[in-house]
Amino acid sequence: xxxRIQTLYLLIAFALGIVxxxxxxASFSIADLLVELNVIDLNQVSxxxxxxxxxxxxxxxxxxxxxxxxxxxxxMYKNRPLQIKMVGFGFLMNTVIIILGFWYTxxxxxxxxxxxxxxxxxxxxxxxxxxxxxxxxxxxxxTKLIKSMxxxx
Length: 153
Hints:
The protein is mainly α. It has four helices and three strands; from the N terminus they run H-E-E-H-H-E-H. Helix 1 (about 5-20) runs antiparallel to helix 2 (about 55-75).
């Protein structure tokens, strides 16, 4: 299972999905105040107005579904056609994560009237997409190798 390179790529995409949950997407400078938009906001700021916060629950749900899908697809190493479909669906989910992340950043920018400074959390889904693409190529290469070996028999 681990000896296949695409399993390592899927494991990296899985880890990036978990890291994304706890990473900041953007920060906003308002006068002397720095406001951060996190995927999961662990520090509740009590002195700020509640209207400045953006509820990122759909982003959290999609990312958790992506993490679970990557974990299951790692375990589906014996069923390559299903693994390819799962990685393709993960690719789609990751694209939705990117779109939601930028949408929430834009929504927060409108609420605080400030330009966003994107943090490393905005790049994590893009890096994950690259690893998913490389995993898909590896799975297809394995499928092609197995088919060529069956022709030789």
